What does this fold into?
Amino acid sequence: MSLKKKIVILISPFLFMIGLRFVSTLSCSFMPISQTWIPFFIIYYLFCCTLFPMMVERRYSFSIFSKFGFRRIGRRSLKWVFFGLCFSAFSLIHIFLKFDVRLQLIDIILVIGFILINPFFEEFYWRGFLFGKFQNRGYLAAIYSSIVFGIHHLVVRGQICKSFSPLAIFLTTVVSGLVWCLLYKKTDSLIPGYLSHIIVNIPGALILLNLITF
It folds into this structure.
C-alpha cells in the first residue's frame, strides 16, 4: 500500500467528521432539531461504505464487504462470539431501569432498523477498513482506530443525547472499539463484533427516538 493511500485512510475519519458537522449545521437551518439525525446518518453511511473505500480501492462492488471483513466464521470462533455478546449485554442493564414506554409498531420498526444498519456500516468502516488496513501493526492500529472512533462519537453525541457525559461516551466507545478490534483479529470476521455492536446500539436507538431519556 502506497504512502498516499495510508495517509488518506488515516485522516479519513477526521475528514468525514468535518463533513458530518457541516451537514448537521446545515440541516438545522431547515429541519426540526428532532429530525436532523436523518440526513446526518444517511451521509455518515455513505461516507462509511462508499467514499473512502472507493478512494482507496479504485473500484467498487458488493464483494468489498467480504474483503473488508464480513466473512463467515467457523466453530472455533463461537467462543469469541459469546465473549462479544457477554461484553455488550452490560449496556442493557440501565435500559431496564429507565424504560417504561410502550412501543408502537413504527417505533419497533425504527429501532430494529437502526440497530441492524448502524453496526453494519460502523463495523465495516472502523474495524474492517480503518483497523483492517493496518492490523499488521497490532495494538497501535487497534488503539488508533478506537480512539478516533471515540472522538467521532463525541461529534455524534449532539445528534443523540447531549445529556451524556462526553468523557463517558469517549471511554465507552474506545473500550468497545478495542474489544471489537480484538474480535476481528481473533476471528478474521466482522460478524462477532457486528452482533455485539447490535446489542450495544439498542440503548442508542431508544434514546434517538426519544423512547427513553437520561
User: Anything to note?
Assistant: The CA atoms of residues 65 and 87 lie 25 Å apart. The chain has nine helices and no strands. The two ends are 45 Å apart (CA to CA). The chain has a mean pLDDT of 78.
